[in-house]
Design a protein that fits this description.
single chain, alpha/beta, about 15% strand
């Protein structure tokens, strides 16, 4: 089983939204948690916080629940267990590499991971914390676009591994 870890600052907005959206997208493709486990954490998260109300609302419109989400602070164990770590910004990526230099081959900003070589289109996922539902909706739409590419890459890896 592979573990994909999404990382943001507080683990109440972007990374939990990305987590539940990717879980749903993978399930829609017949890829279950026994194959790919998707988790999230925050660099400066307070353990046990709920997802922001705006994130809950925006995900709810998509039929995805964040009701059971509780924030988690990033730990060395999480870094070690993940085969792929996707930060919402380059700063998140750099922070992981400062904590564990050996992780450099598996940590990316989400935008970097889904961009073609030399392309710089989706480098950062802006933090919607404290902003309107409309801003959260824009974040969700950007995440959907990028996560579709993550699903594509994971399916490609899955095909290679089964050959």
């Amino acid at each position: 089983m592979k573990t994909v870890l999404f990382l943001c600052t507080g683990n109440t907005c972007r990374s939990p939204m990305a987590q539940v959206m990717l879980q749903q997208m993978l399930a829609d493709q017949g890829i279950g948690e026994d194959e790919v486990k998707v988790t999230s954490a925050g660099l400066y998260a307070s353990n046990g916080e709920t997802a922001s109300p705006q994130a809950v609302q925006v995900m709810g419109k998509r039929g995805i629940s964040l009701a059971s989400h509780r924030s988690r602070r990033l730990t060395p164990k999480m870094i070690n267990e993940a085969v792929l770590i996707l930060g919402m910004t380059d700063e998140h990526k750099q922070a992981v590499m400062m904590l564990d230099a050996a992780s450099s081959d598996k940590v990316f900003s989400l935008g970097e991971y889904v961009s073609k070589p030399g392309e710089n289109t989706w480098r950062q996922v802006p933090d919607p914390f404290g902003q309107s539902v409309d801003v959260y909706e824009q974040t969700a739409k950007a995440l959907e676009t990028m996560l579709a590419q993550v699903v594509h890459k994971l399916k490609e890896e899955r095909t290679v591994e089964t050959e």
